[in-house]
Design goal:
90% helix; ATP synthase CF0 subunit I
């Protein structure tokens, strides 16, 4: 306890007011110095530190706002791009379906026209065959008729007199002319 009393007694022995000196007792002076420095820093540095923190806070908020605005713009652009993509996909599907239907319609039209052409060719072939058959039949008829007529004329020439012969020729020529008119 004596040490404590000595320290209080030593407080009564302060040097006179006019002198200045260094206290080299670190344990006694260090907390006082620290409290003075901290007090001065708090008093004078409070405004500067507050301003620095406020500026930093404002920059952070501005960065967040800018980021949000950029994100919103990016989301809008993404939605527009998705809408355009869907529109283009729909148009492509419609175009594809239209082209497929056109191709199918052209294919059906091609088959139909080919079938009609083949049918016309078949009809033309059949008509040509029928015409050639009729022509061949007519030629055969004419030859048979000419040969029969020549045979009849030969028989008549040998059996008939000249007057009867001329009358028969005239009648046959008239019949032959009538047959030619019918055949044509």
């Amino acid at each position: 306890m004596r040490n404590v009393t000595d320290s209080f007694l030593s407080l009564g022995h302060w040097p006179s007011a006019g002198s200045f000196g260094f206290n080299i007792d670190i344990l006694a002076t260090n907390p006082i110095n620290l409290s003075v420095v901290i007090g001065v820093l708090i008093f004078f540095g409070k405004g500067v530190l507050s301003d620095l923190l406020d500026n930093r806070k404002e920059r952070i908020w501005m960065a967040i706002r800018n980021s949000e605005e950029l994100r919103e713009k990016a989301v809008e652009q993404l939605e527009k791009a998705r809408a355009r993509l869907q529109k283009v996909e729909m148009e492509a599907n419609q175009f594809r379906a239209k082209e497929y239907s056109e191709i199918e319609r052209d294919r059906v039209n091609f088959f139909n026209s080919t079938y009609q052409i083949l049918e016309q060719l078949e009809n033309s072939k059949n008509e040509t065959i029928h015409f050639e058959q009729q022509r061949a039949i007519n030629q055969v008829r004419q030859r048979v008729f000419q040969q029969a007529l020549q045979g009849a004329l030969g028989t008549l020439n040998s059996c008939l007199s000249k007057a009867l012969h001329l009358r028969t020729i005239k009648a046959n020529i008239g019949m032959f002319g009538a047959m030619n008119e019918i055949a044509d």
